[in-house]
Amino acid sequence: MECLNDIYKELAALVGIEHMEKIYEHYRGQELNFPSKIYSKEYIRIVIKEEYDGTNTKDIARKTGYSERWIKKLTKECEQHSTK
Question: How far is residue 68's CA from residue 56's CA, in Å, rounded to a whole number?
């Protein structure tokens, strides 16, 4: 692994050399940026519809990595769409 550039060393240490090579082959030459939030807005809406009980905004925020304020905003949007 000493022959690898630093970023590839880190990636190989994280996912293994074989997976690093697959990632390299697939994305070679591209610059990748990962959003800070892993879950999509659509998925968060599903979580809210399935799990929100009127009192657990903080739990949903913690589980999904979004702020309570943003979860409350989406909750209101979901409630408005369900009453139409």
Answer: 10
How many residues can be counted in the chain? 84
User: Would you say the pTM of this structure is higher than 0.85?
Assistant: no
Q: Which of 78, 39, 81, 42 is nearest to 62 (CA)?
A: 39
Compute the distance between CA of residue 57 and CA of residue 11 in angstroms, rounded to an integer: 35
For residue 44, which of 24, 66, 27 has the smallest C-alpha distance?
Answer: 66
Radius of gyration from C-alpha coordinates of the chain: 19
Locus of tokens 């610059």: 31
CB distance 20 to 8 below 8 Å = yes
Q: What is the mean pLDDT of residues 59-73?
A: 95
